[in-house]
Amino acid sequence: MHSGTLREGVALGSLMVVLLASPAIAQQQSRARTAPVAQNADTPVVLDQINVQGEGQPGGVLLGGPTTTRTTREELDRQQIQSIADLSQRLEAGISFNRVNGSVNIRGLDGARVLTTVDGIRQPFIQDTRIDRSIGTAFDFDSLSTLDLLRGGSGSSTLGSGSLGGALAVRTLDPEDLIRPGKTVGGLAKTGFDTTDKAWFGSGAVAGRFHNTWALLQGGFRRGHEVDNRGSNPTIGAARTEPNPADFNQYSFLAKLHQYVNEVHRFGLTGEIFKRDEKIQTRTNAVSLTGNYRPGAHQTQEDVERKRVSLTYDYKQPGGFIDEAHANLYWQGVKRNSILNAYRYTSVVGPFARNNEVEEKSFGFNGHLIKSFITGPVSHKLTLGTELRASTLDQYSAGLDGCRPPYAPFSACNNLHTNQSDTPRVEGNMVAFYAHHEFGFLNDTLRLTPGVRFDRYEEKPKATASYLGSSSYAGMPAASSDDAWSPRVRLEYDIIKNAPYLKDVTLFAQWSKGFRAPTASELYANFGAVGTYLRRGNPDLRPETSNGIDVGFRFGDKAFGGSVTFFHTNYRNFIETVQIAPPGGLYPQGGIQGPQNVARVGISGVEANMQYAFAPNWLVRGSFAYTDGKNKVTGIGLNSIPPVQGILAIAYGNESWGGELSTKLAGARKSVATTGSTQGFQAPGYAIFNAMAWWRPMPQIADLELQVGVYNIFDRKYWDAVTVPTGVLAQARDYYSEPGRTVKATLKYQF
């Protein structure tokens, strides 16, 4: 399919699905609005696939808004979603997971510019200094109750630093999620196999209550191999297109205890562990049959671990002095190890090993309260909150090689820096307060919500022996601190309310500002030595800032509803790694590189989603995203901007069985840098097709379900543009392709 035709087809097809509502559709609407869950085998079923905005408030008070969508536990299971890549292929167009830096991409931004929270706890973007890769999503999708996706920077007014592009907020299972009304025990178990990475997986959760005490235990595992692609060349070196052989193990454990006091107060205790380790046998350009590194003698490993303990308090008594209050006191530890075990055959002959470790431990408190009241014809909803956080980051590279100092001038051993810290110990502090006030006029059909958050942060480097003795040490850097105001104003107007065929139509517009504080790596990481190259941090970096608007409308309900959003955001002080000094002098190999505030960026686009239950048991849904972003200094497109994308699906389901056919469409991406070390990948357009079916053999007896999905049915070769590295590619093009035809089978039981 030609990329131009595809681009037009995605835009036209998705927008038509979202926007068209003919009189014939209106006539069927009354039939489609039946109960979302069947009560018996003869009752029509309307599939509940997506929580459309306007049905409650996805994201709650901190993330709620017109650009937030929610995916529930039931929807994650129904779509067989166990990763961000699955979410982007099946439900949410325009987002993706960047495997290069280990982060979520929303509205063309990723890395530290997208914030992830787990049960309201901020997840740090801590980078491995030597390979610029972070931890990514260090949680088990099978442990989640809901997943809220906020697009755009409006979350900065409640979430603070890091949500320039958006936020991914997940909530883990509570015992209340599993115990059904009238029961004292509940549980959920799932197992299956996925050919994408040849993985077996399983999870189980059980919850019980005794009087006012509720408890939950949940655990999960996944064991598999490398992610498949469409490469077919298994040779050794740069011509290889098949993935490197890999083996991984992942497990998680979650425990929760809730104690209620007279149904108004709830106290909670949570403990959680997530761990993943992956071993990779290098077969790509780093090895050769006769070179220094050879096949079988070069193995890398990535270990990720996250632990946390949290104490929570929830209060809810509408009409009281305070309607709601929520507090979360937590400790969290996040660690990443990049490990290399190899043997050198020619230069510095002998074993070569590295363990680059970065770890952050944090202690924090999040809390907010809500009060609603009425004065005359105006309703009010006031939200006040705070976030307090203290953290300590440590980095160390341990290693073994054949070098013994003193080294000869400009020898190979000058490149083998190890048993040192590239970064000092960094002690961080953050204090933030926010306030938002929703005013409701005209019987609450017109709502105006101004709000603001104030942040003050500080990063203080501390000397350690391993840092003072590093090869690139040039004195202790200064502390970095700053503060930021993140205001937001939102206006919503219900132009149609509870109409017979189109339930609600709401126009909205919001303006928001946000910021992103520099990471410890950007501020203080130094790596290199005289005679080679130097990469150095910049303690004078200023925060990145955003200034943007969102305008659009949402309509309807789960039976027939959706939303359309137009957005434009300007960003300043983008932090980018630049060439500070060319190769030569003391650094002949690569010169000096480091981060600087250099760019002015503009990103704009349109997003849309819709679902329509056009007949009993039938549903059609669609998601569309178009994003355009450029560096305003150079006029060149950003490498992190995805192409235009759309998802279309039609599904059928009754009490016993159902299925879905869907397609993911993407246009070609050409608006990127085409030369130099920052050139982007010009990915061609593609269309892939998926099919899924599920069966409940005994719906009246047991909640047992078998599900099988076939994805990329026609084995199409395609590329996810934002997951391909920038610069001149080290491997042949097909090495970076996405998986071909894959099959996932799951068996789930709930009681």
From TrEMBL:
Membrane topology: Multi-pass membrane protein
Protein name stated in the entry: Hemoglobin/transferrin/lactoferrin receptor protein
Keyword line: Cell outer membrane, Membrane, Receptor, Signal, TonB box, Transmembrane, Transmembrane beta strand, Transport
Organism for this UniProt entry: Bosea robiniae
Statement: the UniProt record of this protein carries the keyword Transit peptide: no
Subcellular location, principal: membrane
Source superkingdom: Bacteria
TonB-dependent receptor plug domain boundaries: 68-167
InterPro entries: Beta-barrel_TonB, Beta-barrel_TonB_sf, Plug_dom, Plug_dom_sf, TonB-dep_rcpt-like, TonB_haem/Hb_rcpt, TonB_Hb/transfer/lactofer_rcpt
Domain TonB-dependent receptor-like beta-barrel: 275-713
Membrane-spanning ranges: none
SUPFAM superfamilies recorded: Porins (SSF56935)
Protein family (similarity comment): Belongs to the TonB-dependent receptor family.
Endpoints of the signal sequence: 1-26
Location in or out of the cell: Cell outer membrane
